[in-house]
Structure formats: structure tokens, C-alpha cells
Amino acid sequence: MKARIIANYLPQFHPVPENDKYWGPGFTEWTNVAKARPLFRGHYQPRIPADLGFYDLRLPEIREQQAQMAREAGVEGFCYWHYWFGNGRQVLQRIFNEVVESGKPDFPFCLAWANHDWDTGSWLKGIKKEVIFQQLYLGKEDHILHFKTLLPAFRDHRYIKVDGKLLFIIYDPYRFEHVEDFMETWQQLASEHGLPGFYFIAMANSTNTIIRKPDGGVAQGRVIPDIKSSAKVYNDILALGFDGINSFGKSRAEMIVKGTYKRALLYRLHEHLSFLPTLKYDYPKVVKHFFAPEDTWENIYPTLFPGWDRTPRTNDSEGVYVNASPENFRSHIEQALKVIEKKTYEHRILFLRSWNEWGEGNYVEPDLKYGHGFLDAIKTAIS
Known about the structure:
Blueprint: E1 4-9, H1 17-23, H2 29-35, H3 60-73, E2 75-82, E3 84-86, E4 89-90, H4 94-102, E5 109-113, E6 118-119, E7 131-133, H5 140-154, E8 161-162, E9 165-170, H6 179-192, E10 198-205, H7 231-238, E11 244-248, H8 250-258, H9 260-272, E12 280-282, H10 283-287, E13 300-301, E14 303-304, H11 311-314, E15 320-322, H12 326-340, E16 349-352, E17 356-357, E18 362-363, H13 373-382
Parallel strand pairs: 1-2, 1-16, 2-5, 5-9, 9-10, 10-11, 11-13, 12-15, 14-16
Antiparallel strand pairs: 3-4, 6-7, 8-9, 17-18
Helix pairs in contact: 3-13, 5-6, 8-9, 12-13
């Protein structure tokens, strides 16, 4: 294999009380996916799943089939989104817990902590914003409780490692108050429980307009994004004590294609003026700028990006990627392989975003239009 591909995995495809309360009984991501409609000629909506249908992740058979598909395509493992809001409060944890407790599927996994507020805009735009769960950082005792809750997963032979350490990803390193204390506490707990320690990775855009305050949180005011170099963005995050960064080049690439200020203006206009023509991005033109020069650093792990269309959730305020075909995705993967080719194999990691984000048009599972095309693109490119 030319790369270690780890796929982000959304465990939202089953009803939970919180979704039932705010969006109606039985709500899952499929609710948005099925009701989506095309906004312009040639717009690929709705997106209908093929082999697995409108699945329910509570069925272990579905999870086995997903793992088999991923394995055959050359994906190393799934990175499950994990929600912990403090003081033991979780959501969508059932699927991962069943994977750990049952031992099935026998397929590698790791966790990404989606450390952000859960509000009524999480799955659907256009209703009054209300915070369902606030992301809280409650200090050392809560960090200990968090660790012990996940300890069975950390002891599991399937848990993915980097440099012999447990891979754990943090979605938002900017607003995490005293993230250094969290990582130090978990490293100490790992040692006390006979674990090899953690390899902490922060998710980060390869260019940014925000500044992190020393203790966590975002400072007031914005900075002009640097689209030529990601060195400062990456070094500022690594200085917090992270072992590596999962870089995401979407914003940078769009700025290069549309222009920094024009892109920002277009986003604001489409957010408030729904009658405007749909904002579109030509996938092959954008993704050729997806990787920053610093993505070649040994501890920077770039993202594979099969497409983007969040209109089922947010209408067209974030733009729709057109021409996101399996052929163009394969070219994108081949470009990514060149970015990481000089790294040691252990660090030749590409994060696939995502395995099954159907509401974002950001998935590789089979659909009625492309079949196994995106999975075949991965297999062909890396084998």
C-alpha cells in the first residue's frame, strides 16, 4: 500500500432522543438526504444509497458490510466521531460502544472528539438556533472520567496506533481551554493503566483567519489568511503539544480559486439571500490547490476530499461542488500520494473525509449514480 487511509465515520444513522425531540420521531441523517432536491440543472440531488440502502447502524450486519467494503478498497480503519460534552454527557455513542463490546466488525478504529456545541443547526438550517448540548471543559476530574469511559476501547487490539501510540484526534484545538492539561492528564493515565500513550492529532484548516488565545478560545478580530504558507498555522498548533495535524485544505483551495475576499463575500450573501443562483465550485479546479506546501511535513496528515454538497442540511450557503466524479477523485488521491511519498510509511496517513457524510455530499459508500466508483478510485490509486 502507498498510504494509510483512515476514514471519518458518522454514527448518526439511527434515532436518538435528542434528534427525536428537536426534529421529530425517527429523525436521522437520511431524513435530510431523502428530501433534498436539485437547485440547478445537473445538480446531483437527491443522493440515493445503493448496496446498503437507507441503513440503520443499530444493525450489526450493516456495520460488517461497511467494514468489508472499506477493507476491500484499502481503507485501514474507521475514525468514529465521538461526542463528550463534559460530566459524562454523550450522544450518538451507542454504535461505537456496540462495536467495542461485541468485538465486531474485526476492523481497526480510532476516535475523533467532535468537541463543539450541539445546537439545532447541527443537522438542519432554517429553524431557531438553540443549544442542545454545550461543550464544556470541566478540568482534571472530568478528563479522568472521560478517559475511564473510553478505556475499554483503548485496550482493544483494533485501536489504531501511530508510532506505537493510540491515535486520538481533536476536532477543534482553538476553543479547547487548557488543552495542554487534558493531553498531559491522558498521557499520565495511559501510563498508569499500562497503555503505550497517545498520539494526539489536531484537525486544522491549512489557512485561518482566527487567532487562539493562550488558554483556549478565539481572540476578537480576524487576521488576513496566508494562502501561500501554512507554517504559522501548523506551528502554533504543534506548540500546544500535539504530535501531529490533520490538515484540511478546503478553505485555502476555495480562496485561491475564487479570491480571498470574493469568497468571503459570496458566502455572506448566500447565507442571507436565498434567491441568489447557487454558489458552485468546480471540483477538479479547486482540489488541485487542496494541499499546502507544509503538508509534506512528516507529522502533517492531509485530507482526502471526495466532494461537498451540504444543501440537504444548509441549502446552498456553503457552495456546491460540481464534477466530483470518481475519476476526478482518483486524480485527487494521486496528487495526495505525491505529497506524502517521502514520509516514512508509519506517517504516510491520509484522512478520508468522509466515509458516510451523506448530508454533506461527502461520502464514498455506493450510491445509485456512481456505484462503487469512489471505492474503486481508492483501491486503484493506492494498491
